[in-house]
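On clarity, I found the account of how folds are encoded harder to follow than it need be. For illustration, here is how one protein appears when written out as sequence plus structure tokens.
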Amino acid sequence: MARQQPSRSISQADLLRLLHEARGWLDSAAGQMLLDAERNAQRLALPQCFGQHLVQYGLAPEMLDPDEKVMRHHWHLDMECRAGTLAVEEARWPFAPQSLDAVVLHHGLDFSLSPQTLLREASQAVRAGGHLLIFGFNPLSAWGMPHYFGQSWLGQAGFVRPGRLIDWLELLGFAVEKRLDGCYRPPLNSPAWLQRLTFIESLGQQRLLPGGGFYCLLARRQMFGALPQRQRGMSFPTLTLPPLAAGTRRTHKRDRQ
């Protein structure tokens, strides 16, 4: 019989404070290591996506270089008002169903009131044949230790095990086409020690080991039967951005056995 998993609640205000702390951490040596590795993974995965409309949401919604023209139309969504972004609720995106060609969730599920609700909202906006590109922290790695022991903001972020996420995607009609892992070194604050442990990163990449600090899943929405007919005129309704509403979530330590 499975052991009861502990849980805790978090308000939207607390979630925003947690997000600010994590975004500040991105300027550290470990944060830059994470972003560099994830940008490399994104460059490998995005060429398999095609279309004209792409949306990014999550920890660093500007992670995609604006000079890198992947698709003609490109939006940054965020849960708060920031320069160059559209503020949205995670459960209410201002896009018509099946109107986007690709959605990038950069640790969006790790910083959400309800990961399943956010994933459902993002998936509904993706057209048949379109893609979801999802970055998440891997609890089955050295990065999972601070999470389970409650250290820094990693102890509050909601880590979703990749196997469980794959199950959720299959229920939503998506098939995972590619998985990439990175950041095999622990999230140390010392640049010198990160440099000394570079060999661990090389070993993990060469052997395609699954124990990286983050995983990147590229999933495609399945097309059942004929291709959907393209709508004439505008692909999107008028953007109506609802105000942020307070809410709570149940953040589970999902991966304790």
